[in-house]
Amino acid sequence: NKNFYSGESYKFKVFQNWSYSERRDTMKTYDSLTVMMDSINHVNIKKSEDAYLKCMEIMPDSFKVYQELIELYEETNNVKMAEEVYKKAKEKFQSDSLINRISYYLGNAYMKAKDYKNAVKIYENIFHYDTNSNYMRYEIADVYLEAKDYDNALKRFFEIVKKDTNYVTNYIQIRKIYKKKKKDLQKAKKYLL
How large is the C-alpha radius of gyration of the chain? Predict the structure, then answer.
């Protein structure tokens, strides 16, 4: 479908240059390149969004369109619109595996927005369907870590250690928590690599 590929093309341009838009928000003095790229990004977001919405009209049963649109909103920090697409997809599709696929993007959007409570809720729901996933355990632990809930982060990291002793990143995170956050050098030394 021409609209789908158009949406993909504009989304790719946005993703390529999103760092300019992120910088623009935090800059006190704007340089002209950043302002120009931010303006172009917003035009491309709108074009991508319009193309995907047109696809939804033409192919209302295409899950891929919902997935690409929620990914666009996640990457561009638009939690409100990501939630809307998620709700529409949940109404439209009954498959847990499909919903989990876009739930992940919504969880990421919440993380970027520092809405840790909702991020954990979404990730826990995904984890419920695949309790063997150390990746989702790690994502949940990472949310707790970002939220400065070190006890719950440690709990999740230790769950991963029990399942897979080769998950090296875990040990690094456990050590960091004990050393820098809990100021417990004895426990931190246990997790030296």
Answer: 20
